[in-house]
Amino acid sequence: MTSSQLVKMRLELRRGVLVLAVLGLLKQPHYGYSLRKQLQDGGIDIDEGTLYPLVRRLAEQGLLESEWRQAEGRERRYYQLSSSGAELLSQLTEEWQQLNGALAFLLGQVTDENTEEN
Fold it and tell me: What Pfam families is this protein classified in (predicted)?
């Protein structure tokens, strides 16, 4: 596998996870930079060109509410989950946990089978 193929596969894998991570963090209000910083601190590096369009799309879908607030001498747009967003977060979290369990089992099966063959 070439490095460009690996990069593409990583991006594909991360795409859905980003939505879940952003929704999870927006249980509390954040503006763009603080949201990006929280994601980075949690181990998810995301550039502004990916984050801001994602947040705008989620807001347009009614999953986030936003408001302008004065903070640190400037106005910033803060985002937070709407009730629809909170409901979706709950459903996606449950789905993620089921998928994660299934993947752990499947990947463990592959590892166990490889170990038994050797």
Answer: PadR (PF03551)
